Amino acid sequence: YGDTIQASVSRMELFNSCPFNHFIRYGLQLKDRKIYRLEAPDIGDLFHAALKHISEIVNEQNITWASLSKAQCEKLAKQAVEDLAPKLQNEILLSSERHHYIKRKLEQIITRASFVLSEHAKVSGFSPIELELAFGPKGKLPPLSFPLKNGKKMELVGRIDRVDKAKDENGNMFLRVIDYKSSEKDLNLNEVYFGLSLQMLTYLDIIMTYSNELVESKATPAGMLYFHVHNPMVNSTKMLTLEQIEEEWMKKFKMNGLMLSDQNVLKLMDQTLESGSSQIVSAGIKKDGTLTKNSKVASMDEFENLRSYVRKLYEKTGNAIIDGNVEITPYKMKDKKNCAFCPYRSICQFDESMENNCYRVLPQQSNEQVLELIRKEVQE
Questions:
Q1: 66/122 Cα distance (integer angstroms)
Q2: Of 59, 25, 50, 189, nearest in space to 110 by CA
Q3: Which residues partner with 153 through β-bridges?
Q4: What per-residue confidence (pLDDT) applies to 40?
């Protein structure tokens, strides 16, 4: 792997899910034969590119997301897909009537997502400052570097979908990470603990480490949130008005993740929030001013512990890679098995009916248990 391992976050997650899978992909560099078809990663790439394309046009025309009408969102979405379709998988979206239909459906999804982003912007104190923010040797920000054994080192490189900033009435600066996903996603701290879901905390660590470069001041982490890019169906057993339908649609775009357990920060994220549940983020405030039990939040100390723990995990993973760990040890967590979608099963021949072929069974733990375990490990 060389003296300097230049790696993405997903590569580290892959090693922690199964070292042999990592060895096949990054050691032997074996890849699936490229087939001319439209797959989930291609659609995900289109969503990312389209939202960036729309954001660039919004910036160029000196308008704001909050001022966009539904008609403007539809026009911008159509323009984005028209511009990007020829670049996707050898013009696959232009190849048949079926793919033309898929193209129209993708336009509808991007229209809906951009309209919801516009609605979020109307009531949020946060505004985007960076899109597709690259970190690494060729990025706007430096990579995260970790010293490894034998004088080797590891550099983490990648790209952050969106970084938002907000300032409270006392002048305190807050930063948050938004990640666009084509499927529903939430931050699973149990997966963070075992090194299987490191992306969002790494992105947050990056923007906190280099906050002076981004906003020319030291900032506080406000949170990390997933935005689901989709065009959901609204199900109801009764007749709904157009306003009620829009309200149900908005609920399906509520952002999941982890936020700072500070009601002032939550009110910056949703300025309509006084009491009850937010329509934008997974949090709520009781009438007495405390946060509701189902609010997905962590304290400032817990955020710092998570950042420190993830850094230690990267060093541990990097050292395991240079030690030559290529064991066939896939994990199983509850009903989830990483072999289910692995393209290399025909190579490793992992078979549970064989005596020595066993999954690493990872226990299911609550967020409270994980945060306590991380606190203890960081303090050791």
A1: 5
A2: 50
A3: 4, 147
A4: 67
CB atoms within 10 A of CB 248: 15
Total-model pTM: 0.90
pLDDT in tens, 145-183: 999 998 999 999 999 999 999 998 888 999 999 999 988
Q: Is residue 121 classed as helix, strand or coil in its secondary structure?
A: helix
Task: Please give the Cα distance from 169 to 183 (Å, whole number).
Answer: 36
Structure token digits, residue 195: 């090194």
Contact residues for 23 (Cβ-Cβ < 8 A; gap 6+): 326
Q: Please state at what angle helix 242-251 crosses helix 97-123, rounded to 10 degrees.
A: 90
CA distance 310 to 196: 11
Three state DSSP letters for 291-313: ECCCCCEECHHHHHHHHHHHHHH
Quick check: helix, strand or coil at residue 210? Answer: coil
Task: Compute CA 25 distance to the chain's CA centroid, rounded to the nearest angstrom.
Answer: 22
Read off the pLDDT band of 244 (50, 70, 90): confident
On whether the CB atoms of residues 9 and 198 are closer than 8 A, the answer is yes
